[in-house]
Amino acid sequence: MIQFKNVSKTFAVGKREIHAVQDVSLQVNQGDIFGVIGFSGAGKSTLLRLVNQLEYPTKGSIYIRDTDISKLSARELRKQRSQIGMVFQNFNLLTSRNVFGNIAYPLKVAGYKKQAIKERVNELLTFVGLTDKANDYPEQLSGGQKQRVGIARALASSPEILICDEATSALDPETTEDILRLLKKVNRELGVTILLITHEMRVIQSICDKVAVMENGRVIETGEVFDVFTNPQQLTTRRFIQSVQKDLPSESILKEWQKTNGGKLYQVIFKGSATVDPILSTITKQYDVDFNIVYGSVQELQEKLFGNMIISFVGSEQNTKKVLGELEKRVEIKEVY
Amino acid sequence: MNVDWITFWPRVVDATAETIFMVASTLFFGTIFGLTIGLLLYVSRTNNILENKVIFNLLNFIINLIRPIPFIIFLVAVSPLTRQVIGTTIGTVAAIFPMTIVASFSIARVVENNLVGIDSGVIEAAQAMGAGSIRIIITVLIPEALGPLILGLTFMTISLIDFSAVAGTVGGGGLGHLAMTYGYQRFDTSVMTVTVIILIILVQSAQWLGNTISRKIMRR
Known about the structure:
Oligomer: heterodimer
Radius of gyration of chain A: 24 Å
Radius of gyration of chain B: 20 Å
Structural class of chain B: mainly alpha
Strand content of chain B: under 5%
Order of helices and strands of chain B: HHHHHHHHH
Number of helices of chain B: 9
Strand content of chain A: 25-35%
Largest sheet of chain B: none
Shape of chain A: elongated
Strand order of the largest sheet of chain A: 6-7-8-3-9-10
Distance between the termini of chain A: 46 Å
Number of strands of chain A: 14
Order of helices and strands of chain A: EEEHEEHEHHHEHEHEEHHHEHEEHE
Largest interface: A-B, 27 and 20 residues
Structural class of chain A: alpha/beta
């Protein structure tokens, strides 16, 4: 659906060159919710703007379906842009127009007739749950409501692709959840492919199917969200994951543990079906070893379960070894302290 | 030698009408030219939708050239051109010409200043929706800046009332002319007082109207 082929973007700031995007190749498939995560300055915002040519690539090409969009004429580009909805961090609503007028704007640009505009806007207001706000002006709305208008506006001309520039970063946690649910609904009910950028791992965790991690203009890791979460390869990726799920208790707790108990601690990671079977208790019972869960969590990712536990074993050394051997066959386990 | 107010009133009324005519015409033409120049100046800025260094620098230079000249000097300096274009340098119509030039460039600056205040994200959003530059100018830039723009134009209107009085002293007609010939040269304090009061009323009315319209547009 969207394909980046060796795309680079360099800005000249005075005499200095800033390599915002460097040799990025990505493939976003139809129906995906694809998230790009990175700290600020990683180049994700520029990457997003390349999709609708608000920024032009210095090198490489971007394909939407089979069209190389950098080869479009100005007129064709405007038409292509109206087929890509864009949602912004700061909403970017027209303050001179009310909610109805803001959602109607892209339809006017696309040349819809008055009656058709009215019908479509009402449809969208219902979809985003703002039917009673049609005549309100942006300054009368809360942040979450403004973003709903922003999303309705982006969807107005029935685009196949929605690109979201930090769509939830200006919102409080609860409103963020609402907007994420709405984006998921857009994806599932309307079949819109979504490419979003964010610096918040929980956005990736809660709605994305695929993720790419960006650092210094490059994509350093990409894959299914579940795989990246459960088996991160890069340090930056690990840091992002730890922002939503700490996989280890803090150092002071570990020290305290060692002082009072002294036993070894193991990290056990359960994925998918391993979370369902009572593996741990079955195996430990078999070898007459007790276990103690010091720390841990079980989370849902892409409708699959993912558990992470810090465990100590209490039993004879020999049996503990056997338990570890059995567990290694079924789950990931490693000594952490 | 004071005037006879029974016969003099109609002249005051005429002079007031002339002043309003001069100011309104100048405001009309000045807004058309000023809006065009101001928009050009804004969109041709670096990193803007129709970035063009040559146009920007040229317009910027002309504005900075004309604005610092005191109006009374500009009026006299430009009079040969006024004669070429209007045919005369005497009367209300002749005064409108130099007033329009000065107003256009001042309004251009006012327009530019107000447009700079628009959040660039809104323009980006319109571009992302497939809107072209002309459409963005008409449907985004002007409406978004309209409230403060009206206040800027109000400020300009008041300057124009001032300009019209200045123009009146060198043959422009209107209240300025009346105040000079009767109030100043014939030492008639009553004429001076009346013209000053009328000018104050004009300024206050313009300000009130401008405030009311802009408040309505900005909804506050």
